[in-house]
Design brief:
Bound molecules: farnesyl diphosphate
Order of helices and strands: EHHEHEHEHHEEH
Number of helices: 7
CATH class: Alpha Beta
Shape: globular
Structural class: alpha/beta
CATH superfamily: Decaprenyl diphosphate synthase-like
Distance between the termini: 55 Å
Strand order of the largest sheet: 3-4-2-1-5-6
CATH architecture: 3-Layer(aba) Sandwich
Helix content: 25-40%
Number of domains: 1
Strand content: 5-15%
Radius of gyration: 18 Å
Mean pLDDT: 93
Amino acid sequence: MALFGKSKKSGASSDISKEIIMPAHVGIIMDGNGRWAKKRGLPRKAGHREGAKTFRTITRYCSDIGIKYLTVYAFSTENWKRPEDEVGALMGLFKSYLEEALSDFKDDDIVVRFIGDKSGFSPELQTLMNENEESSASRKGMVLNIAMNYGSRDEIVRAVKNIAFDVKSGKLDESQIDSSLVSNYMYTAGQPDPDLIIRPSGEYRISNFMLWQSAYTEFVIMNKLWPDFTTNDMDEALRIFAQRNRRYGGV
Ligand code: FPP
């Protein structure tokens, strides 16, 4: 049986984009899968499986309503510390997902990118990630960044090392280093910073996610576990965002 079913669209009924000012870039920390499973007496991997379904629904919804960039936190550099069977289940889920569902995003014209250190994954997963990036690169729709083996401190260290290397090799002059240059050494080079980061599950933490990029991001914490998160919750987060008065340090 196909893991993710075959529906083509998110089933969006409203068009929130006509109602509010939309963020260009949304980040989501997909949190609460474990608690969702525990509440039901199920193994944690059952929560991740449900979380994967929510991921697919919300990704399509974001594309349908005209979000230009979506970044989802799927696996952090710290998540390797989880019990072996949970990490194994997540790797299995990523593999099934990359094999059977990412091609599905073709209908939505979604560009798929992975941010994070791919080299931490099995050669098989790395190949699937590269294939998905290559086959979707020429699409024109929403850019979906899937953060896997991603940690923002690692991303910043990598950027600093690459800048140092480029200065040392003469490719770059020290006087050229400013915040926009540093942004271009991040995995998200060329993309706007996230306007909105949503964290379901009621936790008030950033958990090493987009530290550089979120300097002026609006945070919305939702009291829903990720597998229970719906397109209505997404609308609610977008409405909360639209009511914020963004001042970027000004008055
Ligand atoms: C955090 O919840 C969630 C994760 C570490 C995994 C997120 C992965 C998915 C949603 C799978 C789908 C992703 C793709 C790209 C197919 P948690 O386990 O920390 O929950 P808890 O805080 O309740 O324990």
